Amino acid sequence: MAHKEDAKPSLRIMxxxxxxxxxxxxxxxxxxxxxxxxxHTDTLKVMGEMAVTGNVHAARARVMGTCGVEGTWxxxxxxxxxxxxxxxxxxxxxxxxxxxxxxxGLLSADRVSIHLYGSSRVEEIGGEEIEVRRRRQLxxxxxxxxxxxxxxEGDSVVLENTLAKVVRGxxxxxxxxxxxxxxxxxxxxxxxxxxxxxxxxxx
Length: 203
Fold this sequence. Notes:
Number of domains: 1
Low-confidence stretches: none
Strand content: over 45%
Largest sheet: 8 strands, parallel, barrel
Strand order of the largest sheet: 3-4-6-8-10-9-7-5
Oligomer: single chain
Shape: elongated
Number of strands: 15
Number of helices: 1
Structural class: mainly beta
Distance between the termini: 49 Å
């Protein structure tokens, strides 16, 4: 099997290019790329702009530029330092964001770590450990740096600057800048005095 894996080509885009989807060992984008179809790669690095008309599977990905995906995103780890839009679901082991994102479906990951660098939106988040933090150096203008979600559900949930309809977890901490309609928790719940929680109930 090793020789078949090694035989997979790599794709490197420096300028403006339209490429077919397929299976690659490495994909690197430093220009403007459109991938028509599904993209499957061991590693993905986007420092320019990339648009994918299908699904993306990247075992390990790092997005420092702009990336738009019309389908779903799956893989092991995604590190976001730029701008990401996924029209479907996003399923990973680890999701680390220090950028801006829109995920129209479910973001599912064992570990979700988000540091807000602007306003982001996701329909649902599900995971074991979920942490949303605001940028400390932007305390005076933090109101413009928010995460909006319909449902957030995990074992351990720590939130700042989050607007959500339902937050559900075993242990939930609602921090500064949060507005939550309903919190449901199993074991522990705490919130800052300035956080807004419409309803809280223990399951």
